[in-house]
UniProtKB/TrEMBL annotation:
GO cellular component entries: membrane
UniProt xrefs under InterPro entries: AB_hydrolase_1 (IPR000073), AB_hydrolase_fold (IPR029058), AB_hydrolase_sf (IPR050266)
Entry keyword set: Hydrolase
Protein name stated in the entry: Alpha/beta hydrolase
Annotated source species: Gordonia alkanivorans CGMCC 6845
Domain AB hydrolase-1: 37-249
Length: 267
């Protein structure tokens, strides 16, 4: 694994040192804009947000898109993938790279990480958009693609390998290591009690697909537990940001811009 490329530019992004770990990240936008960090999920990368970047930049946001170790352009580490280590590294990234409180938009297990960061370091978080994630196994419903990943379906493995090999500095031979580490994480995490986040005061927009991986009852439990949460279900969707950016993007941007009143009463 290469660890000597901090500061190098690759595909428009840059390598940075975060708490002793080399990460690739992409940042763009108005330096005076609101910092907004986009967190991808497992087997994904900053490229997951390709359908959001143009609209988010047009809205004047200052975007930060870090890639986890072993994902995208970031070299892997010798450690297993865990929610705790990802959250700790995200906190370090917010402190050292972003440098001021930010919005966090998290997708899949990146959504769970966003809530962990808001719980543990509320001073670093303005608002959260929680997209298509579950907090524990009871929040997950059967999903064909996930089942193919877990069963090592050959076509699925090759699809994921192709994406890994296109950008990874660790080389094609390292994919099997990343795959095994990912399956170990999926078997055990995330596994948080929804009640663990009852003290998260940051405004949170919970977005789910009506045909997605997350049980609707689980999403509603999250919304009812968080003190300042809003809920959106996008119809006819499974992978929300990719399938329906025309619905997702303005929804997120309006939430990040201002809170509507929580209730309305006539004068």
């Amino acid at each position: 694994m290469r660890t000597d490329h901090v500061g190098d530019e690759v595909d428009g992004g840059t390598y940075v040192d975060v708490a002793g770990t080399t990460l690739w990240h992409f940042s763009a936008g108005d330096p005076q804009g609101t910092p907004t960090v986009l967190l991808h999920g497992i087997f994904a990368s900053a490229a997951s947000w390709g359908a959001q970047v143009p609209d988010f930049l047009d809205a004047g946001l200052l975007l930060f898109m870090p890639e986890r170790p072993g994902h995208g352009h970031s070299p892997d580490t010798t450690s297993d993938f865990t929610c705790a280590s990802i959250a700790e590294r995200t906190i370090a990234y917010l402190q050292t790279v972003v440098g001021r409180p930010a919005n966090i938009v998290g997708w899949a297990d990146g959504a769970a990480i966003a809530l962990v960061v808001a719980r543990d370091r509320p001073d670093l978080v303005n608002r959260i958009v929680y997209v298509g994630g579950y907090l524990n196994p009871r929040g997950r419903r059967p999903d064909r693609f996930s089942d193919m990943v877990l069963s090592r379906n050959p076509v699925t493995v090759e699809y994921l390998r192709t994406h890994h090999d296109a950008t990874s500095p660790d080389g094609p031979e390292h994919f099997s290591v990343v795959y095994d580490k990912t399956l170990r994480m999926l078997a055990a995490e995330p596994d948080y009690a929804v009640a663990d986040f009852a003290d998260v005061r940051a405004p949170v927009l919970v977005v789910v697909a009506d045909r997605g991986l997350v049980r609707m009852e689980h999403a509603l439990e999250i919304v009812r537990t968080l003190p300042n949460a809003r809920f959106a279900v996008l119809p006819g969707t499974h992978i929300v940001p990719v399938e329906a950016p025309e619905l997702f993007n303005p929804l997120v941007l309006s939430f990040l811009a201002a809170d509507p009143p929580t209730q309305w009463l006539p004068e």
